[in-house]
Amino acid sequence: MYNLKQRAIKIALNEKAAEVAVAKGAKQRLVERVLSFDDVKRARGEYVDAMFKSALSPKNAISTDEAYKKYTLALSLHGLNEEDLEWKPSCPFCKDTGRVGTKLCACTRPKYLSALKSLCDIESRASFTFDDANFGAIKGDKQRESLKKLYEFGIAYANKVPLVKAKTLVFCGGVGTGKTCLASAIARETLERGKSVAYLSAYEFASKMLAAHTSPIQERNNRLADYLTADLLVIDDLGTEPMLKNVTIEYLLLVIEERTNHALPTIITTNLSPARILDRYGERIYSRLSSKNASRIFAFDGKDLRIN
Asked: Which of 52, 144, 286, 305 suits a disulfide with 138, CB 3.0-4.6 Å?
């Protein structure tokens, strides 16, 4: 069972290997083409023969040198030298293996990031970034300053994931107060650092958990794996999902507990107040979302920024 990062690494290494295979194939075709020239083919044959004779008797070393000069001259007449026919790795650090020791080489990291973003489907799920924030467009001074502080916290948080103190963040507030935008920005920044992110709406989360709950036991862990092992999990708009018996509350509790136990952070956005979270989900979930040791609840106050 591979997690998101492991799958991205595998894709990146496969892409690197495919690139190397293409480059080697191109080099081989060049060699075959050059050796098809009569003068090069003849000169190379004489050079190989001279090397064989030199190996049998050192007296033939001089003829080997002369044969080599003829061979290199033949290549030069076609605008080539011997090095042009030799395969050399494009990366001096990993020798085109894609790894340096147990880590991905810098030459392969862009492929890894691209694969990870694709697997996390981040472009369609979380479009807002920290660069998109426009505090100048916010009319209310209090709301503007509050959001600035929240974004400062969010940037610092994203740069530490998964090594953060608060393992569960809850963004509470009215419609359009910036909760989802901040969660999206944190997710995007986290991914840019090469960390995995599972980002989905509460409705989709409930659907995924229902699918896991009704699947054969041997498949259940695979269906839950991404949500339990991602470096960051974002559940957007909690409270809009259906309350499914033995699923909604039970699996939300399971995921939060497992992630907290494995020191993996979760961000939840919701229009519900803390009191309404307690009423809807009960004490077990509320106590974990409001834990002083592992959680923080942020209030997003002010007007709807979409119509502000």
From this structure: 144
Which residues are within 8 A (CB) of 175 and not within 5 positions of it... i.e. 6 or more apart? 271, 304
- CATH 3.40.50.300 at 122-300, yes or no: yes
| DSSP symbols for 145-183 | HHHHHHHHHHHHHHTTTTS-S-SEEEEEESTTSSHHHHH
pLDDT at site 45: 92
> Which position has the token pair 């033995």?
246
| 180: CB partners within 8 A, 6+ apart | 128, 236, 237, 269
Please tell me the distance from the alpha carbon of residue 253 to that of residue 258, in angstroms, as a whole number: 8
CA pair distance 192, 96, nearest whole angstrom? 23
Distance CA 276, CA 297 (A): 13
User: Residue 259: which of 289, 219, 222 has the closest Cα?
Assistant: 289
CA nearest to 170, candidates 252, 241, 238, 259 = 238
* In the chain, domain spans: 4-111, 122-300
Query: Taking 80 as the threshold, does the pLDDT of residue 171 lie above it?
Result: yes
Amino acid letter at 87?
W
Tokens of 121: 């489907």
Q: What is the pTM of this model?
A: 0.88
Q: How many residues does the chain have?
A: 308
In the chain, where does DSSP find H-type helix? 4-34, 38-56, 61-76, 109-120, 122-125, 141-158, 179-192, 202-213, 217-229, 248-261, 274-289
Backbone angles phi, psi at 245, to 5 degrees: -60, 130
CB 256 within 8 A of CB 168: yes
